[in-house]
Design goal:
Length: 345
């Protein structure tokens, strides 16, 4: 299979690689159509590791994917050949304690695409469990289908925040995850979102996506903006999506008494946090790791027109140019959000 392979020396090659996969009775075989490039793919290319996961063998990249079913296992009932689908990239052990508790994203043995030693899907075909494969509504394109993966992170964050109708939210960071979190926040019932970043084109894009107030923290004071927008009370929910240690450390400033802080971004270094700043507001603190039980809900919101991810898809490359696509993604211009790769038809 001609695939995009990250070698242990961190070079990238389009080359043949043997990925042997058997179609089980509850699996489907999918011909890939569109695969998004995630920050984690780029991170593996540049550093060869994320936390304990180290690239020691050649690995196919890519986990944000949509495609067409070409074959179904004998026991699969809800999908058939020809269905357009997107896929959850993490496959938990169904019998694990975490899975039995409904927290399958936290199963320590989850196998997640493009996380060593598991291959990703920048390749012609993949075999995947039918229960982690979701039919795309007719109105949802493959490109949008491949956006469900990052969107799922934002939706999971909003679910963990227990957003109530009319809440006002702050999102720190206007990268892909910050933007999908802002979209999910509005779909979840927030009346207003303030999104903070330093990069003007990202904020300008955010401002076009709905009831989103951009705040350029390079020359605006976020606390002042939040105070003004909330009658001095503070935001009901603050989502940390920047991964910046500084942002993670001081987000309680803008939170209302009794509000909720959700940590979505993953700072590379440990964060020193002012616990008393959280205590004096009795802040509830939530964290998210990927997502669970979100894909069908995300697709429903897309179908209903309540979430539109199309403006976030800024750059599309052909598979034959996928090495260039990764070079582009490593030094992405400020005007770009999501880079996607289209597989050969
Ligand atoms: Zn991703």
């Amino acid at each position: 299979m001609k695939s995009l392979v990250l070698e242990p020396d961190l070079s990238l090659n389009i080359r043949e690689i043997d990925v042997c996969e058997q179609l089980g009775p509850r699996d489907v075989r999918i011909k890939l159509h569109t695969v998004g490039i995630c920050g984690s793919d780029v991170h593996y290319c540049m550093h060869g590791r994320i936390g304990p996961f180290v690239v020691t063998e050649p690995m196919v990249l890519g986990h944000e994917a949509a495609g067409v079913i070409v074959e179904v296992g004998a026991l699969v009932e809800h999908l058939k050949a020809g269905d357009r689908v997107c896929m959850e990239p993490g496959i938990p052990d169904a019998n694990s304690r975490a899975s039995r508790l409904g927290k399958y994203n936290l199963d320590p043995r989850v196998r997640f695409w493009a996380t060593p030693p598991v291959h990703g899907v920048l390749r012609p075909e993949v075999v995947h469990p039918a229960s982690y494969t979701f039919k795309l509504p007719d109105s949802v394109s493959f490109a949008e289908g491949a956006m469900v993966e990052p969107l799922a992170v934002g939706m999971h964050a909003v679910a963990k925040a227990r957003v109530k109708p009319g809440d006002k939210a702050v999102v720190l960071g206007a990268g892909p995850i910050g933007l999908v979190t802002a979209l999910a926040t509005l779909a979840g019932g927030c009346s207003e979102v303030m999104i903070a970043d330093l990069i003007e084109p990202k904020l300008a894009l955010a401002a076009t996506l709905g009831a989103i107030t951009p705040v350029n923290v390079g020359h605006q004071n976020l606390s002042d903006v939040v105070r003004e927008k909330t009658d001095g009370w503070g935001a009901d929910v603050v989502f940390e999506c920047s991964g910046s240690t500084q942002a993670a450390a001081c987000l309680f400033d803008v939170l209302c008494p009794g509000g909720t802080a959700v940590y979505v971004g993953m700072p590379v270094e440990p964060v020193v946090m002012d616990i008393v700043a959280a205590q004096v507001k009795e802040a509830r603190i939530e964290t998210v790791f990927r997502y669970a039980h979100v894909y069908d809900r995300a697709l429903s919101l897309m179908e209903a027109g309540r979430i539109d991810v199309k403006p976030l898809i800024t750059d599309t490359f052909r598979f034959s140019d996928s090495v260039d696509a990764f070079e582009f993604a490593k030094q992405m211009p400020a005007t770009s959000v999501k880079v996607q790769i289209q597989m050969p038809v």
